[in-house]
Fold this protein.
Amino acid sequence: MTATQSAEYLFGDSAVRPVANVYWRRLAFWNIGWNYTSKKHNMHWLAREICNFHTAKSFDAMGISEIFNIEEEHLHEERQVIMQHLVDALNSSAEPPAWTGRCDAHYIFL
């Protein structure tokens, strides 16, 4: 598969994986830029957005960056709570539950 074919697959409407490569995985990344004082963002909104995106694009893993400022290390526990909420939201429609997460000062990976 060429890079052009990969890009066409990624941005196309089809969630069907290429038949030729059974080891091919679909990754998603989102630089959300969530400021801690934002009134727009909350973990319920984010979970809804990610679940809707997963339904539309059927990704295997996702990285989310800039949930709060990287220098706000005192918010690490809150990032953990958000990550667990996202995992629970994705697992609510997975049988058996398949989603896990990892978190650091800059990223949440699902």
